[in-house]
Structures are given as C-alpha cells and as structure tokens.
Amino acid sequence: MTIILSIITVVLLSISVWQIVKIFEVSNLGKKRDDSQIATHKDNDLHGKLMFAFLVFIYLVTIFSFVSYTKVLLPEAASEHGGTYDRLFFISFALIMFVQIITQALLHYFSYKYRGLKDTKASFITHDNKLEFIWTIIPAIVLFGLILYGMTTWSQIMNFEEDEEALVIELYAQQWNWKARYAGEDNVLGDANVRFLNDYDGRNTVGIDSSDPNGLDDVVVTQEFHLPVDRKVIFKFRSQDVLHSAYMPHFRAQMNCVPGMITQFSFTPTITTADMRMNADVVDKVNRINKIRYENSQELIAKGEESLEPYQFDYLLLCAKICGSSHYNMQMKIIVESKKDFEKWINQQQTFSEIIQ
Amino acid sequence: MSVVVNNNVDNHDEHVHHHKETFITKWIFSQDHKMIAKQYFITGVFVMGIVGVLMSLLFRIQLAWPEESFYVFDLFLGDRWAPDGVMDPNIYLALVTIHGTIMVFFVLTAGLSGTFSNLLIPLQIGARDMASGFLNMVAFWLFFLSSAIMLASLFVEAGPAAAGWTIYPPLSALPQTQPGSGLGMTLWLVSMAFFIASSLLGSLNYIVTVLNLRTKGMTFFRLPLTIWAFFITAIIGVISFPVLLSAALLLIMDRSFGTSFFLSDIFVQGEVLHYQGGSPVLFEHLFWFLGHPEVYIVLLPALGITSEIIATNARKPIFGYRAMVASILAIAFLSTIVWGHHMFITGMNPFLGSVFTFTTLLIAIPSAVKAFNYIATLWKGNLQLNPAMLFSIGLVSTFITGGLTGIILGDSALDINVHDTYFVVAHFHLVMGISALYGLFAGVYHWFPRLYGRMMNKSLGYIHFWITAIGAYGIFFPMHFVGMAGLPRRYYTNTAFPYFDDLADINVLITVFALITGLAQLFFLFNFFHSMYYGKKSEQNPWKSNTLEWTAPVEHIHGNWPGKIPQVFRWAYDYSKPGKKEDFVPQSVPISKGENITEH
Questions:
Q1: Which residue of A48, A198, A259 is in closest CB contact with B266?
Q2: Of B241, B369, B499, B548, which is most buried, counting CB atoms within 10 Å of its CB?
Q3: pTM of the predicted model as reported, rounded to 2 decimal places
Q4: Domains and CATH numbers, chain A
Q5: Is the CB of residue A234 less than 8 Å from the CB of residue A169?
Q6: Interchain contact, B484 vs A74, CB within 8 Å
Q7: Which of B554, B566, B587 is nearest to B34 (CA)?
Q8: Mind listing the pLDDT tens digit for each residue in B446-484?
C-alpha cells in the first residue's frame, strides 16, 4: 500500500510541477514576453545561482551518504592481504574524493561566477601551454604512483607460492550451489572431470576420478566449509556448467569459476568467526539487521505468516557472475575457527572413498 | 563508389533542384542525411529509449520492494512473467539484459552517434550530403531491422535473452541453463549482427565524408571538435565492431552447429555435453575488445557535442583546442588496449592484469585534460545558461564523478573486491550512461532548431535538467555504497542474504529517485513533440554560433545550401574575439585586414 501511495505521490508531484509551469506560461501571456526560447540575463542569473546550489547539493549528498551509509560497509578485512587491500582502497578513495571536491567546486563555481549578466564580451583565451602541461603532468605523476602501488599489491596477492603448509581447497560451482572439496590427508586434490559426475549413482558430486589415489581421501562438503585461522589457504575453482564467480567479500577475495579450466586464489584468514561476531561494527550491523527483521516479522505475524529468524553473523561465499535464475541465492557459509576445532570438524566428514563404498 | 573531392566549391550545385521527391523517398527511404538523422533519433531514442528506461524502472521497483505484487508488473509482463503481479527471477535477468543492450547499443550508439553524426558531419564540414546517401539509408534500415528484431525477441515464449548484456557463454550458449538462452538469444544475436552491419556502413560513410568532402578552407585543424569526435568514434567503431561480429558468429556456431569455441567440460541437467577444449575466457576477450572501445564510442560523441556547446554558450574559444584533439586521439588509441580490465579475475594470467592496470590508468590522463579544459573554458566566460549548456555542464560533472571511481576499478588489486558489485553499476552509469545521455539531451536542445526549424521550450528544458540532475546523483551516488557493502549486481533480490537486510533503505531511496527521474523525462518527450509542431520558429543562427550548419537556411533543402557551399576561413572558436563588433565570427567570414589569425 505504501508503495502505491508513494507512486501516486510521485505522479501527483510531477503533475503539480507541470501545472506550475502552465501557470507560469499563462501568467506571462499578458505581458510582452520574451518567447525567443534563448536564455536571457534573468535566466542566466537564476540558473547560475542554481548551479552553485547544485554544488551544495552534491556536497550534501556526499556527506549524507558517508554519514548514513558508512555503517553498511564491510567490516575490517578478515584476511592477511585484506589489510593491504583496505589501505590501498582508502588511499585511492581519499585521493579521488579530494579531486572530486575541488573539480566540482571549480566547475559549478565558474558556472555561477561567470553567468552572463551583461552583454559584455568574454575573455578571448584560446590556450595556455603551461597550464595544459601542469594538468597533464600532475595527474600523470599521481597515477604512476597509484599504478606502482596497485601493481605491487596485485602481484603480492596473485603470485602466491604453492607451499606445502598451505591448505588446499577446491570450490566447486554449479547452478545454483557451492561445494567445497578438501584435499585430505595427502593435501593433494585428486583429478576430477565432469565426465565422472554420473558415476556411483550421482554420489560423486564433484566428479572425482576414482582411479586417482590422490582423490580417495578428498572430502566434499556442502552448505558450509571451515577454515583454520592463520593458515594459508589455496583455493582452486571449478564450475560444471556456466561461469560463476566465487566472491568472499569479508576476505577481499574473488575469482571466477570457469568450466573447463581451474582458476586459483589464495588468502590467509586472520579472524575467527567467533571473534568477528564480537567486532564492534559487526555487532552494530547485526543489531540493526535484527531490528529490521523484528519489524518485518511483526508485519508477517499480523498477516498470519511465520516470523523471520534472528540473524547471526557468518562469513559468506556468494556468486557474483550472472548464472541464471537463482544467481541471487547461491550461498555457502564460511566458518573460520581455531586449528583444533578445524581438525575436529574435518575428521568428522566422510572421505570420497567412504562415500563411494 | 566514386568519392567526390569537394575542393571545387561550385560542384554539386546542379543537384539541388533535380530530385522530385515522392512521399516514400522523402519520409521513408530518404537518402538525405538530415532526414536520416531524424529517423535515427525517433527510432533510437523514442522507441528503443522508452523501452529501455521503462525496463529499468520495473526492475528498480522489484529491487526496492522485492517479491511484492505490483499492478505495473502485471500490466507490462503479464501472467507469464509476473504471476499474481510478482516478478519472476528469469524475467528480472531478461530485463537487466535487454535494458543494458538497448541503452548501450540502440540508444547511446545509434540514437546518439547516428543522429548527430548524420546531422552534423555534412552541415559542419560544408558538404551537400554524406559521401554515399544510399549506404547511409541502408545503414539506417539495417538499424531499424535490428531494432525490430530486438523488440520482437521480447515476445518469444521462453523470454528474451537473459545472460546479461555481455552474453557470456556457456550461459548464453546453452538453452538448458536458462530459458532466455533459447530463441530469445538467437534473436538477440541476429539483431546484433544487423546492428553491427549498420554501424559499420554508417561509420565508413562518416570517415569517408570527413576525409573527402570538407569544403574549401576546412583543414583538419579548423574542424569543430564535434567532427573530430564523430570521426574518431567512427574509426574506433570500424576497428572494434567486427570483432564482436566474429564473437557472435562463433557463438552462433557453438549454439547451433556443435562447435566448441567457447565451451568445454560441461554437465547440465544430468548430462555430460560433448563440448571439449573451448574457453569462455576467449569469448570474454573478443567481447571486451569491442566492449571497452564501445564505452568511448558512446562517450566521445557526447564529449564532442559538449565541447561545441560549452564554447558557444560560454561565448569563448574552447580552451586548448589542440589538447582536446590530442586527448581524443589518446583516448581512442588507449581504448583499444585496455579491454582486459574487465577480466582481472577471470583466471587470466595475473601478469596481464598488471599490464591492463597500467594502460587503463593511463586513460585517466587525457580524460583529466578534457575535464580541466572544460572548466577552463567556463573561466572568464559570459555564460549563456541555455538548457543545452546546463546539460553540458552536467555532463562534465557526472563525467568527473563517474570517471574518478574508474581509478579504483581500473586498479586490478582493488577490482578484486568490487568487481561485479553495485560499485561497478554506479561507476559506469555515471561516467558513460548519464554523461552520454546528458550529451544527447544537450545536443537535442542545441540543434533542435537545425532538426525541425523550431525552438524547444526553455522552461520545460530547465525543469527537465534540474530534476534529472538531482535524480542522477540521488540514484547513483548512494549506489556506490551498496557495492562497497559487498552486494553483487544482477541479484533478483538481496533478501536471500540476511546480511544485506540493512541495504533495504538505500534500495528504496534509489528507486524513488529513479522513478522521479524517469517521469521527468516526460517533460522532454512532451517538449520535443510539442515544439516540433508548435514551437517558436527559429532564426537562422539562434545561438550565435560559428559553425557552418547555422549558415544553411532554416528550411531543409536537399543539398543543404541553396547556392554555393560556404568557404571556410578560420577555426570554429572565434568567440569574443577582440576587435570584432559581435562576440562571434562564423567560420565562413574571411579574415579581415590586420586581423590576427588565431593561434591555437
């Protein structure tokens, strides 16, 4: 109902604006009016001032967005490289906000200041090589700095070494769910291909090649997967049907899953799920979300439907590449926990050899 | 095809009275560039544009109030796609896909470039018409056919294409993976094949015309910046569109003839498919080899239009003409070697990521030069704030706001966590969507007198601008935060993740702004059609502009000028030149005795 009301409001608003214009036009009829449809000094004055007001508007939108929406942003990064990522993001963002504030100010202030109030001539200035040089070279220097910084960060993140200590996990995508495969005792993933998916009456859910001994101790899990804190994880990504993108925003990690190809990404989780739930920003966010869920529940109960469950924070794996009708609901929970808890959990899972017996 | 070099100003004059035009040759199969420009505008903007914008309003309503029942859904989508007025997830993806396709290709490529290149190239360089009026006509009708097929695809039973406007295989290749990849996708591909053919014919014509049919005295460095922009845009189009055509053809092969260019190791619906050895990443390379230059195909004409309008209305020469030309050339060159920044996390070699980060961030330099030059042009001007001028200033504003976030997205390291989120959506809508639309509106308000011989109503224009300007920032500024909160794009709803529940307010805000802004376009629509018939008759040169199109008579005649084609003696930006009585000196006015020739 509120929706219909708001749409009606919008329509009525536009009609009223429309009417005001009409009144303007009609009230002007009697006078000897300028109907050249070319801006007059009066128009220039009004719209020059409005340009200045618009600058204020842009600033207000910016301030409003930062004040009200900073709280919805991702909490501190839960991975080792995440800190570096956030710093680079912050520096780049601060820089572009600085340029944004200055250039918008100049643009709109000049639009206001030099609004045509008289029939005087403008200054005849065609070019200025010195200025031109300055505003070519300064962005160039700044950008080179950013490029260097960005490139080093990028290669630090992407060129990881295949060390033996690292935990190897395959994230397996299909329409529309995720599975995770752990490499098992030997820490080597067995060969796999979609051709094996129909083996063992469909129990071979990620298509492990059962003739490869490395695969027998592999562990496949659904719904949620666990990571030990402070241990490097090497992710291998596969997809069985269309492109997907494994997106783990809290770890500042994302990689596409491409059918016919194995892609990879690596990070070291640094904050356990339990600790992250205590993070002040997360606590605040969860409280806000639960307040919203409570209010929505009241509405649902009034309609005789079930109420929503209270929300508890968990790390997420989402799909970020359009992949069909349930793209919006392709999720897996990530639990980061102590090494001991992780060992306990992984030992409870069935290995591939147990599943196919 | 013989190309007539127009050094002799007198040739073609015979032409003028020859043709006896029938209804069909005048209004339908016209070969006159001015009529073809109008045809592009009506088809591209008023038919396709309205469909594209309406679609965005529909999915914005769904995003703000997910899975609720709406009468408008029922009205536009019917029982098939909105049972009980609730939008189906498949049609959501289709709406997003077709909205993107229509806005990028049909509105901002054909509607913008097609209209203004056609209208202005012959008129501003002093030519009787395009080099080949016939090819020009064929180009339009191919575009028309392409539009008709795209619209027809909306009505097929399994729904239109729904794999995103980037139509990445395997999703787009296999009908088993989503209903839209059946007949809908076939029609999409056929439509785009016609579109590309149209675009190539159009672009070749623009290039040949600019190279060969400039009037006497119109050297390259006397060309208005609009022509530079159209000319370079056409060259980028000729270089990059054929690659999309090849990608589309290979995709058609994969879909219909069992080849495996883009497909390998696929298992769908309990069945292993036969495809072996292809790679979707190859498609992504081919697609973005067009896809990125396409951004500039959309944007450069808008920037060209803005350059012209800002200089005219500031009553001041464009600041740094040669720097502007150089930056257009630099952007054009760089645009062909940055496509990989759409693919940082596709599994491409990380070293390539570094290379593309480097080339991508370089583009910021010529872009910054352009922005600063626009600002410097306003400085000490005598600004005539006509609606066209407001839209041009608005363009510079959104170009800066949207362009700056490109510095984050173009940086491979930072792209990791905002790739395919709403941050990207906010970025490209501001920098190429809104900016190019502002360029289009500015162009229409400015050249309407040239198109229809009448003036558009300025009050309506002002209202149109201010609502749109406020709306554009209201929609897209908060959207960056949705992306930075980690919400991926193309989600039917975010309610599947309680983690995003607190984004509901922002989504409602964005949608309310989108609805207001969408409705505000009715002011433009009304103004356009009302002024076409009842607008005030225009003078020959209402904006006191220097360029040649304003020396032609208000009434359209075949061949543009009744007598000789005017000769050109100076650049297009002698505004407020000292020692002149008026604050403008048209290009066709000879250099007077003792007058300084402007160094630029």
A1: A259
A2: B548
A3: 0.93
A4: 167-275+311-356 (2.60.40.420)
A5: yes
A6: yes
A7: B554
A8: 999 999 999 999 999 999 999 999 999 999 999 999 999
